[in-house]
User: Fold this.
Amino acid sequence: METEQIPQLLSITKQARPLQQLPPVDNAEFTPPPQKGLNLRPLLRTLQRKALIVIGITGLVAGAAWYLNKKSLPTYQGSFQLLVEPVSSEAKMSEPSALARTEGDAPNEKLFSLDYPTQLEILKGPGMLSKIAEDVSAKHPGFSIGNLYANLTIERIGKTRLNQTKILHVSYQGSDPKLVQLVLEKTAEKYLKYSLEERKSRIGEGVKFIDARLPDLQTRVNTVQSQIQKLQEKYALTDPKQKSDELFTQVREISAQQLDTQRQIQELRELYTTLQQQLDLTPQEALAASTLSENPNYQGLLAKLKETESLIAVESARFQPGNPYIQALVAQRQQLVDLLNQEAQRILGSNLSDAVNTSEIMNFQNSTRLELIKQLVATANQLQVLEVRDQGITQTKATLQMQAQQFPAIASQYSELQRQLDIATRTLDQLLSHRQKLEVEEAQNEVPWELISKPELPKDATGNIAPIPGDSSKKLIIGVIAGLVLGTGTAVFLEKFRNIFYSANDIKDAIPLPVLGEIPFNQGETKGSKSRAGNGLRKPMKDAHNSASEYLEAFDSLYASIRFLFDNQPVRSLAVCSAEAGDGKSMIALQLAQTAAAMGQRVLLVDADLRRPQLHEWLNLPNSKGLSELLDSELAPNSCVQRSTLAENLFVLTAGQPLPESTRLLASAQMQYLVKEFQTTFDLVVYDTSHLLNLMDANFLAAHTDGILMVVALRKTKQSAVKEVLDQINVFGLPTLGTVVNHVQA
Assistant:
């Protein structure tokens, strides 16, 4: 585009309508509440754009379905019905299962409860169908089990609890009525035969099971009986309760005996102590004294000894101890003492000889002492007997108590063995009884299932077999639905394959950012192939005043959105970015800066695309000094800023001479300083940056601005590229203002 087009653009802007302060824009327009549930709007827009493809595919599929339906042969269907459970009470009573398994007059309802889901799976299983297919293929070669899988239907009549029946409805359909009839007959035959064989097989398995269990069960009964017998023999156990009562009774009795014996022992010990104190003799000494007192020889010697001692006492008063007479008396006394001891030793024997030397024993015992001696000896003997008895009672009591303590465990063991025996015996009796009943049931040959509706095909009024009424409309509807599904899938696939945005609504649904402006597609846009000055600039057509007005009004609305939507924190600087090159971000940055300047703002437009600068060409400005020189040298910022001829308040900082390390320069501290200086000097600073995909330049610059203004071009920008860039922005935590939709077509 030639540079003289810029003044023309400005003049058209001024002629289109007077500049005025725009009203505030409702924030809800740009930040709609999140949609709840399934959002079908993108799909509806896709179907609208690809309506011809969807209609064409739907028509083709529906036509094919109609054609195939016209070419198809007539279909015949036949059926039969089976009663698989008894219905009346009489039928239940006459059923062999009832006769074999029911006790009493009333049959058990649980015996006739059939597991229908399992039964249907068996009847439709490969084992059953393969046998039917073999019989049918014998008369119709080529018939296979696959035909049965596809065309045989088995269902229970009445599937709800209120109308459930005990009838199975079996149907088959095909193009050959004779084959249909044959399949139904063979199927009915196999099912009836299966019911009989299945019952007999089930009964046979039951008999085998019982036969396998009987030996082990009998062995168990014998083992438990043997254990019970051994326990009875060891503990003399017949009735555990009676034995327990006997043990505790014996313990109580022996305890009473022990208390009585201990009382008697205590009484005798007190009497023994009293007698011993009175006699001052031990029982042995008392017995010796009593024996000696009752012996006449001993008493005679004792009397002579006393006479001699008396004579010695009398004569000692007359004679000296050395007198021969006195010595003879003393010798006589000693002789009598020796004789007395010998007599006592002879009388008492060795057991009582040690007590002879006691004076109380050797003295004469009068009748009173003799009576006391007898009581002492008798008391000592009774005390000894009672002590022996008490020891025996104590031992007996300990034995009984030990048996009483052990008995609960023994009784528990006995009860457990008895319980096991009862269970095993009862189980054995039940198995033997069931075996006899099963043998009776196995002897029955009646078919348990009843064919209540024979295999047949419906006939018309003339008696001919009638085919299934035509369902062409149903097949056509299915074809239309299949065509719609296929067409919709194709349309969605094409949209995904192209991977672009078609409308502003697509952007609103796909990008979680508010849409701040929609820039219409300018019919007068040209790309100069001969001059770099025309590359990328949008110029309204001179002969299309309405189009130019809409184009310029779109930038007024964009500026108003930026101005009023962020009124709490005014936007002083922004970075105009795009995901890919060629999305029109540079033109939008230029037009936005021009619009803000026309509104009375002091605006600086910075060409920060150091890789592909083009604003200086569009504005016909020199580019010898620009942003790159400010970043690479110590020039004053105002020395490189130029005033634009498009608006009085519009200033431009060109990119300057290209440098190889643009990313490093934009990430430098000098760039941060310039951003702060520009933001202090101007009301609004607009940065035209390089695209974001695979480049880091704009990320470092945008981090120091108030936010990113993302430009997305309809029918050009790839959706995947925008989503990748947004993910990158979220990871870096960069501020974002919203999106601008470019190339909007009326």
Notes: The mean pLDDT is 77. The first strand starts at residue 76 and ends at 83.
